[in-house]
Amino acid sequence: MRRTLALFFTSYLLWALVSQINHEISGWRVSLFFGGLFVVFPALRLKRNEGLLVAFASGLLFDVNAPIWFGCHALLFSAAYLFVFHFRSRVPREESLIGAVIALLANLGIFLGISFGAFRDLPVNANIWPRLLTDLLISQVFLASIAPWFLALQARALEIAGVDLRAEHRGMR
How does residue 121 score in pLDDT terms, banded at 50, 70 and 90? Predict the structure, then answer.
């Protein structure tokens, strides 16, 4: 349970920071989305149920302020988590560069899922897609720049909570 709480609190911190940044840059009609960062560390480093709980709860954080149906983010975060978790044995899990690349791919998938889900009932409006692509591009650039920091923050939070993931992974192999 310490793992789950430590990672949820780091997710809450990132969610609060991104919410404030989005508030400040809203005048430029741009927003950042970092959903992939909320699922990659738990998917690569935790056991299935613990990590799924972190991803689902992090998705609920996004659902609090979202203008789409409640639970959409939680569902997409959980799906992205399970997808990454399924393939984690094929990648070096402790490498921050690999984590950043997987976060970028997960972010792309979640962003597109939310975009298509949110706009499926609206009439086709070609003006919305350039804005969405701009938001996605800017989000991906900023996500790539902060991913190593956030992954290190999550690893440090687990250390502070007294969790030694390296010893656990050695025991699992």
Answer: low
